Amino acid sequence: MKLLTAAQTREADAFTIKEEGITSTDLMERAAKAFTCWFENKFQPTEEVHIFCGPGNNGGDGLVAARLLHERNYHVKLYLVGDLANASDDFKVNQERLPQDLKPQFIQQETEIPQLQQKTCVIDALFGTGLNRPVIGLYAQVISILNDSGACITSVDMPSGLYTDSQTPDEGAIIKAAYTISFELPKLAFLLPQHEQYVGKWHVVKIGLSQQFISEVETGLYFITQQDAQHLVKPRKKFSHKGLYGHALLLCGGFGKMGAAVLAARACLRGGVGLLTIQAPQVGYTVLQTAVPEAMTLTDKNRKHLSELPNEITKFDVIGTGPGLGTERVTKTAIGQLLATAQQPLVIDADAINIIAGSEKLKAQLPKNKVILTPHPKEFERLVGKVKNDYDRLQHLREFCAEYQCYVTLKGSHTAIGTPEGKVYFNTTGNSGMATGGTGDVLTGIITALVGQQYTLEEACLLGVYVHGLSADLALHTVGAISMTASDVIDHLPKAFLHLSQPMP
Ligand SMILES: NC(=O)C1=CN([C@@H]2O[C@H](COP(=O)(O)OP(=O)(O)OC[C@H]3O[C@@H](n4cnc5c(N)ncnc54)[C@H](OP(=O)(O)O)[C@@H]3O)[C@@H](O)[C@H]2O)[C@@H](O)CC1
Ligand SMILES: [K+]
Which residues are listed for (6S)-NADPHX binding in this entry (predicted)? Predict the structure, then answer.
C-alpha cells in the first residue's frame, strides 16, 4: 500500500471532492465522524474531553468532533487557540455550526491556557498535514503545557507540530500523543523510530479518499499490509517434490556462536525450503546434526571459524551467510571468494555485513541485482557511515541500494526495505518482544528459504519481514514480549504462514 506525502494527501483530498461532487465541508464531516467513531469506542462519555483546535482544517476536524461528541453526551470543553482571523473556510463553517450550549473558550495568550489534571482526556486538533513551519510562540506554549500535564492525548491525523514527511526542525514544539488517528493512510513520520514518543499508538480510519487517485499517484514509499503479504504467498502444487522448493546453503556459525547457525537453519526449514545444507566450522558438526536433523552439514577444514566455500557450490539455488560467523581473517577471505564467484542470489547478514563494510574492495564486489543485505541500524552505519536522523538514514538506504544495485532490509520496529529502483517498503508487523538476540538470524533463514523457492528478491524481502513480524505477533499471545525468544518466533512461523494462506475474503 502506498504512503502519500502531505502534498499528495491534499491532492487526494481535492480529487475526491471533485470526483464525488461533494464539498470540502462534507469531507471534513466524514473525516471527523470516522475519528469520533474510533474515539467513542475508546473513551466513555463519563469523561471530560478537552479539545484544542488550531486555525486550519485540522482545527475544523476538532470542531466537528466537539459537536458530535457533545451530541453523544460527552462533557466537551472546547478551546480555540491563537489568531483565528485567517482561519480556514471549513473551520469557520463548523464554528458557526456549534450548538448554542457548547461555548468555546479562546486562548490568545499564555495565561488563558488551562491547567489540566493528570490523565485528562485531550483531543489535539491544533495542526495536521498543513503544518508549514516549526511550532513556536503561543501554540508551542499550549503544546508544552499539554505534554507536561500527563493528560492522555489523542491527536487528529497528526501529532501537532510533527512534520508529515520531513525532519521537524529542533526548535519546533511537538505534541506527545498517546494515540494518533490518521485519515485513510498512515504517514511516513509514523514509521520512523525517532517519532515514537510523539505518535504513540497509531490507527488509520478510512474516509473514502479516491482509490483511483491513490492507485495512480506516483510514490516511492509503501507499507506492507496483510493483503499484500497474502498476495505474495505461493500455494504449493499438488504434485510437489522437494526439488521444486530450492536447495539453500547456509554459511553460518563459529566457535561460541553456533546457536546463530541453528536459528537461521531452523527458520530456513520453517520458511519452506526444499533442501538445506549448512557449511560450518568443525566445532559445529555435532551441534547442527543434533539440533537441525533435517539439514545436511558440511564441515570446514577450520575447527573454529568458517574459512572456505564448499566444493560444489553451483548446485545451490541461494546462499545465506552471516549469522555467528565472526570476523576472523580466514572468514574474510572466504566471504571475498563468495562475492567473487557466487552465481546465485546471496542473503548477507550480521558479521558478513561487518566484513564487507570494512572493505571498499568487497563492497565493490557485491554482485549486482543478486544480493539482499539484512543489517540492523548499527551494521547499516558501518556500511554507509554515521547518519544524522531517520530521514537521513532513509536517504542513505536509497542511495546505497541504487549504487550497489542491491536490496537492503534495514531492521527496526518498522523494518524498511530498499530496492535498487529506489523504492522503500515499511513493514507493519512485529513487536518489542523481537528485541532479543537471534531474531535477526531467524530473518536471514526465512528470506534465504523464500529466495530458494523462486520468490523474486523483492518478494522474498517483503514476505520475509512480514511473516517474521507476524510470527512474533502470534507468539505475543502465548509467551508475551518479555519472555519472547528467537526460537519462539521460529515456533510460530507455521501459524503465520497458515494465517497468510487462508483464502482472502
Ligand atoms: N486531506 C484529507 O484527507 C483531509 C484532511 N482533513 C484535515 O485537514 C488537515 C489539513 O488541514 P490544513 O491543510 O488546513 O492544515 P492544518 O494542519 O490544519 O494547518 C494549517 C493552518 O495552520 C497554520 N499554520 C501552519 N503551520 C503553522 C505553525 N507552525 N504555526 C502557526 N500556524 C501554522 C496555517 O496558517 P498560515 O500558514 O496561513 O499562517 C493554516 O491556518 C488534515 O491534517 C486533516 O486533519 C480533513 O478535514 C478532511 C480530509
Ligand atoms: K493534530
Answer: 57-61, 128-134, 139, 157, 260, 324, 376, 441
Global pTM value: 0.95
Residue 52 CA to residue 13 CA, distance in Å, equals: 23
* Whole-angstrom Cα Rg for the chain: 26
Q: Are residues 199 and 246 in the same domain?
A: no
In this structure, the residue with its CA closest to atom 48 of ligand 1 is 28
What CATH number is associated with residue 43?
3.40.50.10260
Total domains present in the chain: 2
Residue 130 near ligand 1, beta carbon < 6 Å: yes
CA distance 140 to 312: 66
- pLDDT-derived band at 12 (thresholds 50, 70, 90) equals very high
Q: Are 274 and 245 a contacting pair, CB within 8 Å?
A: yes
Residues 273 and 344 reside in one and the same domain: yes
Same domain, 113 and 58: yes
Say whether both 247 and 200 belong to one domain.
no
What pLDDT, on a 0 to 100 scale, did the predictor assign at position 46? 82
Which atom of ligand 1 lies at the shortest distance from residue 184's CA?
A: 3
- 94, pLDDT greater than 80: yes
Euclidean distance between CA atoms 99 and 73, whole angstroms: 13
- DSSP class of 218: -
The per-residue pLDDT for 504 is 60
What is the separation, in whole angstroms, between the first and last Cα of the chain?
18
- The residue from 219, 249, 284 where one domain ends is 219
pLDDT score recorded for residue 502: 78
**210 and 247 within one domain:** no
Query: What's the one-letter identity of residue 476?
Result: L
Q: Is 160 annotated as a binding residue?
A: yes
Assess whether 277 and 403 both reside in one domain. Answer: yes
In a domain? residue 226: no
d(CA 442, CA 448): 10
CA distances from 147 to 39, 115, 124, 198 (A): 20, 11, 11, 10
- Give a three-class secondary structure readout of 364-420: HCCCCCCEEECCCHHHHHHHHCCCCCHHHHHHHHHHHHHHHCCEEEECCCCCEEECC
Q: How many CB atoms lie within 10 A of CB 264?
A: 39
Instruction: Report whether 253 contacts 281 (CB < 8 A).
Output: yes
User: Could you tell me which residues are beta bridge partners of residue 79?
Assistant: 52, 105
488 is in an annotated binding site: no
Q: What is the CATH number of the domain that holds 348?
A: 3.40.1190.20
Is the distance from CB of 318 to CB of 340 less than 8 angstroms?
no
Report yes or no on 233 lying in a domain: no
Its domain, for residue 427, covers 240-501
Q: Is 413 annotated as a binding residue?
A: yes
191 and 251 part of one domain: no
Residue 235 falls inside a structural domain:
no
| Interface predicted TM-score (ipTM) | 0.98
Take residue 154 and report the three cell numbers written for it.
489523542
Mean pLDDT score of the chain: 96
129 C-alpha to center of ligand 2: Å? 8
